[in-house]
Request: fold
Amino acid sequence: MRAWLIQNLHSLRTALDRLTATPMASLFTILVIGVALSLPTGLYLLLANLQKISGVVNTETEISLFLKLDTSPEQARTLSNTLQKRPDIRAVRFIDREEGLRQLQANGLGDITAGLPGNPLPHTLVVTPRAPDAAGLESLAAELAKLQQVDRVHMDAEWARRLSALMGLGRDLVAMLAVLLGLALAAITGNTIRLQIYAQRDEIEVARLIGATDRFIRRSFLYFGAIQGLSGGIAAWLLISLAALLVQDSVSQLAASYGTSFLIAGLTWQESGILLATSTLLGLLGAYLAVGHTLRSLNIP
Reply:
């Protein structure tokens, strides 16, 4: 166990020496990996914040229930109280037909009803559902339309369907981009390892001649790839955090113009851990593939 630990520490130290031997080249490689990782991660974070915004907007979606003209105010209020108790409804607001007429006149549309013998407007219930998705809204609206006192239901859910479709498309694009850039990250790491092996060919041959095993030769390069991938993940995390910090002021001003506030949500500890673990594994994978192929091409077993 002690010998295994000493060998791994030696390989780790060798990998760090190789990384610091060419600081500028290593820095640029790490930055390239960081940028490649920050693109899908940044888009994921953007979608998460858009989902957060859409969740707030969706809870404010209203379904208007226009009751039959022969429905009394007492019956309308009773129905309002009944609907308020449903678990899928957040709030119900009762608009008396006289109040509706006053609102119509206040909006400058009083001339429309001026020549009519009576008030043509029905009692209205404005329902605010809890369902955050378009499918849930449509299901609730269809169920409410079957109520005996309800004459007509109005809900503009087309925007919700479009938003849901766009969010789904965005998630698919992020997944595709993550796969492509993940492959690019592995290729970058593999190419760096391959150049390292070619540059140290003589050293590797000498080490093999004095008894160095396959595992010993490969181990330091695997550590090098893992360290490079981890460093690229840290660079990506810093870039994303910096970008979120830079745009927060503009987002706050935009939200204030709409009379609200919004704070950009950064990566959670769990998401940050996944980012760093993924970048490390991709670096290790690129190193593993490059070491095996390059050593075989050099006839070094």
About this structure: The beta strands are 63-67, 89-95, 124-129, 150-154.
